[in-house]
Amino acid sequence: MKHFKTLSSYLEYLELPRPEHPMLSVFNSKGDGYLPCPRESSPPITNDCYTISFKKFVEGNLNYGRTQYDFTNGALIFIAPRQVLQWDNSVVFERKGFSINFHEDFLKGTELAHQIKKYGFFSYSVNEALHLSPKEEKQIELIVENIEIEYQNNQDEFSKDIIISQLDTLLKYANRFYERQFLNRKEIASNLLEQFNQHLTEYFESGQMQEKGVPNIEQIADKMNVSQRYLSDTLKKETGKTTTEHLQLYLIDEAKNMLLQPHKSVSEVAYELGFEYPQYFSRLFKKKEGISPSAYQQKHSLN
C-alpha cells in the first residue's frame, strides 16, 4: 500500500495542482470556478494529511476505512491522517465545492493540534458524513473563503495563525452541526441500538461469547458497518449511555436470567458470558445491581 509523507507528494499522486504552501492546500470553486479533478481511480493509499471537503463527489463509491458512501446528495467529509482511501472510475467528481488538505505537522505547536484529536467525526466512516442545510453550507463557505484569502495572499508572520484560527472555527461549527444531525436522527439511533443488541444476541446464542469472550465494541461496529466512534457518539446522544454501558447492560440482563437457573454457579454464568475471570464478572454485577451475583441468587431463591 502506498503511503505519502508529504502533502506535495500526495497531491502529485492525485494529479492535482501543487500547493501554495508546503503543508496546506485549498481548492475552492466559489463563483463560476471549478475544482480540479483528481485521478480517476486509486488502489488503497494512506497519507499524513487531514482533509476537509464538501460536494466533491456526486455518484459512485469511495472506500474510506471499510465502508462505502453514496455521495449523490453531497456532504462535508473529514478524513484523518493514515486512514485508508480507495476509489475506482465509477466515481464521478463534482466540480463544485471545496477541499482543504493540510499536513498534520501544520498544526504542531498550536492548541488545535490537541483539540483536533477530540473531534470524533475524523474517526467516522465516510458514510457517516455531515449533511448540511443551505444555511449551514453558507456559514461553512464563508469560513473557507477566509481561509482561501489568507492562503492565496503573500505569506507573512500572521498568516498561519489566522488560517489555524479559521480552521478551528470551521471545526467548531462542524461539531455543532453534527450535534444537530444526531438530534434529527432519533430513528437512526433507535435502529442502531436495536442492531447493536441483535448482534450481541446472535453472538451469545451462537456460543461465540463463551468460546471467544466478550466482543469488543469495534467488532460489533464492524458487523454493523459503522465506525466505532460514530456508534458510540450516536447512542450517547440519544440514550445518554455509551456503547460500553449498553454492552454491560446486555450482559447483566443475561446474567440475571442465568443466575436463576437451578444449580447454576456464579462461575459458570461468568464463563458462559465470556468473562475470563469470574471475579471481574462479580465486580461488574455488584457495581450495576448493588448486590453480588450470589446474593442475587439467594434473594430470588427465597421469593
In short:
InterPro entries: Homeodomain-like_sf, HTH_AraC, Tscrpt_reg_AraC-type_HTH. With 303 residues, the protein is of the alpha+beta class.
Molecular structure report:
This protein is an alpha+beta fold. The protein folds into two domains: about 1-185, Jelly Rolls; about 185-300, Arc Repressor Mutant, subunit A (Orthogonal Bundle). Helices cover about 50% and strands about 15% of the residues. The chain has helices spanning about 5-15, 110-115, 135-150, 160-185, 185-205, 210, 215-225, 230-240, 245-260, 265-270, 280-290, 295-300, and strands at about 1-5, 25-30, 40-45, 50-55, 55-60, 60-65, 65-70, 75-80, 85, 90-95, 100-105. It has a five-stranded mixed β-sheet with strand order 1-3-9-6-7. Strands 2-11-4-8 form a four-stranded antiparallel β-sheet, with helices on one face. A hairpin with a 2-residue loop joins strand 6 (about 60-65) and strand 7 (about 65-70). The termini are far apart. Residues about 65-70 have low confidence and may be disordered.
Strand and helix map with partners:
Elements: E1 2-4, H1 7-14, E2 24-28, E3 42-47, E4 49-54, E5 57-59, E6 61-64, E7 67-70, E8 76-79, E9 85-87, E10 92-93, E11 98-103, H2 111-115, H3 134-152, H4 159-183, H5 186-205, H6 208-212, H7 217-224, H8 228-239, H9 243-259, H10 266-272, H11 278-289, H12 293-301
Helix pairs in contact: 3-4, 5-7, 5-8, 9-11, 10-11
